[in-house]
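Case 190 in the screening queue. Each case pairs one protein sequence with one candidate compound; here the compound is fe (iii) ion. For every case the pipeline is the same: read the inputs, emit a complex structure as tokens, and attach any notable structural observations.

Predict complex for case 190.
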Amino acid sequence: MNKKYENYITLLKEKLDDYRFQHSLCVAEKAVELSEIYGADKERAYLAGLLHDITKNFSDNEQLQFFSSSAIMLSSVEKISPKVWHAISGAEYIKNTLGITDNEVIDAVRYHTTARADMSLLEKIVYIADFTSRDRKYPDVDVLRNIVSNNLEDGIIYALRHTIVTLGGKNIPIHPDTLDAYNYLLINKK
Ligand code: DGI
Ligand code: FE
Ligand code: FE
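Case 190 output:
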């Protein structure tokens, strides 16, 4: 992509471990690829993909401190779900620390982990780019990539189902936004 992202890439390299840094570049690339198929804004998709995990390497303590200094209140499910914290802190970070004002980009970061009901096209693209980027290597990844290249919503349903089943099987709480996203897509399936 072009020069205006150089400072963000430098920042990501500082804040993230090498695996997470490479992953962020791959998600940005995948988000652009999906934007070409589905007609989203490529610049926004690239930026949101690049920044989606910006606070992923904060420790749990740093996350909690960041929430308290930003006056962010966690719900009861969120309090016991540390894996979703980086999406909440990431959105706040790009808004108030980086000064990003584009709400579509901020929301794409905010909902990249849980998804939510009635997502924008950009939110959908970043959510599923995170599952299907070049660096991802789980057993069904090519099955999911294939679904996503044909039907974005079907791909998201597949990914949400996988998350709900996996978390459920491990006695891990499922965020209401995740369930709302899944139900919404089934109810509104064409
Ligand atoms: O940050 P990444 O690893 O790239 O991916 P991600 O932001 O999708 O985070 C994946 C993790 O988030 C994975 O460990 C499962 C967890 N997660 C996703 N949805 C939910 C969730 N955890 C809880 N407790 N509830 C959810 O609904
Ligand atoms: Fe993430
Ligand atoms: Fe990610």
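Case 190 observations:
- The chain is about 65% helix and 0% strand.
- Residues 53, 56, 81, 83-84, 87, 112-114, 130, 163, 167, 172-175, 178 surround 2'-deoxyguanosine-5'-diphosphate (ligand 1) (CB under 6 Å).
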